[in-house]
Design brief:
heterodimer, A: alpha+beta, 15% strand, B: 5-stranded mixed β-sheet, 5 strands
Chain lengths: 208, 90
């Protein structure tokens, strides 16, 4: 399956996703605000006609140069996460999965406060470094700086500075902490800068 | 490739929502196929962002080498670096 095939499948799903646009493998809520949320089609190495469909969100104030799916899940058909582009009922089955699995997930994420609530649940259920980081940043983004500082503390205690990517995560958390202590304007400016950077890295500037 | 397709069908036939096939990781993050520097594992058991076990399909005499295991572990989410990484054969 090629990007144009995925875009065509995404376009076919737009009636079930009002306000979304399809661009290549991505079908996402537009305009993008604080969070990128939507679907992403992913090809398979096992079989040229097989693919996966992620429903996911990405808090854009957490700097990233690529799309990632830590905050999401794959749509499944009868419990299976792989889809076959050759299946005669592929469009109908996808539409059903989107309505039953993706829409309820995406509806929980249509405001930054709701995103923070979902991340709070994720941290409780699966407190990974990336989840804690995203929760802290989104809390700062919605102005709950006291809670953000608390989560940043937990994050900084959990990182292993001997691992390069975790050290980078810690250094960025230190910077955000400084900005929070400096005041709301400095915090907002820093988060807005990271948000702009992420949107640019993803090539989605015109959808902001 | 045909073996992988058969393997995928076999995993799918287990009808286990706790299994995911073909998942890519870099530095603890889950990425799409083909992301630079990513490692792709054949099967993940448990939540992909915090897996419980990894299964790598090997055919013929191919083995899961210590270097490959190190590479996988280095990219799994923090906290999941010590999970079992097992070979599966068709």
């Amino acid at each position: 399956m090629r990007f144009k095939d995925f875009e065509a499948l995404g376009k076919g799903l737009l009636p079930y996703l009002p306000g979304f646009v399809a661009k290549g493998p991505l079908t996402f809520a537009c305009p993008i605000c604080v969070t990128l949320r939507g679907l992403c089609f992913e090809g398979s190495s096992f079989d040229a006609s097989s693919f996966y469909v992620w429903v996911f969100f990405m808090p854009l104030c957490v700097p990233s140069d690529r799309l990632y799916f830590n905050f999401g899940k794959r749509l499944r058909r009868d419990g299976i996460d792989g889809w076959s582009g050759d299946a005669p009922d592929i469009k109908v089955a996808l539409a059903k999965a989107v309505q039953e699995q993706a829409v309820p997930f995406l509806n929980l994420l249509d405001t930054p406060t709701k995103v923070a609530n979902v991340l709070r649940g994720d941290v409780a259920e699966s407190p990974t470094l990336h989840t804690r980081q995203a929760y802290a940043y989104v809390l700062a983004r919605i102005g709950d700086t006291a809670a953000a500082l608390e989560v940043l503390d937990q994050l900084q205690k959990s990182v292993d500075p001997s691992v390069p990517w975790q050290l980078k995560m810690k250094e960025r958390a230190d910077l955000l902490r400084e900005k929070i202590l400096e005041g709301p304007e400095a915090t907002s400016a820093q988060l807005a800068m990271w948000e702009t950077e992420t949107i640019k890295n993803l090539g989605l500037e015109k959808y902001g | 490739m045909r073996v992988h397709t058969a393997f995928e069908a076999e995993v799918n036939s287990l009808d286990d929502a706790n299994l995911a096939t073909e998942v890519s990781y870099v530095n603890g993050k889950v990425f799409a196929r083909g992301t630079p520097e990513s490692i792709r594992v054949d099967v993940v058991e448990g939540p992909v962002e915090n897996p419980n076990a990894i299964y790598d399909l090997k055919t013929g005499t191919a083995k899961l080498t210590p270097a490959r295991i190190r590479q996988i572990r280095a990219n799994l989410p923090a906290g999941a670096e010590d999970i079992p990484i097992e070979t599966v054969r068709p």
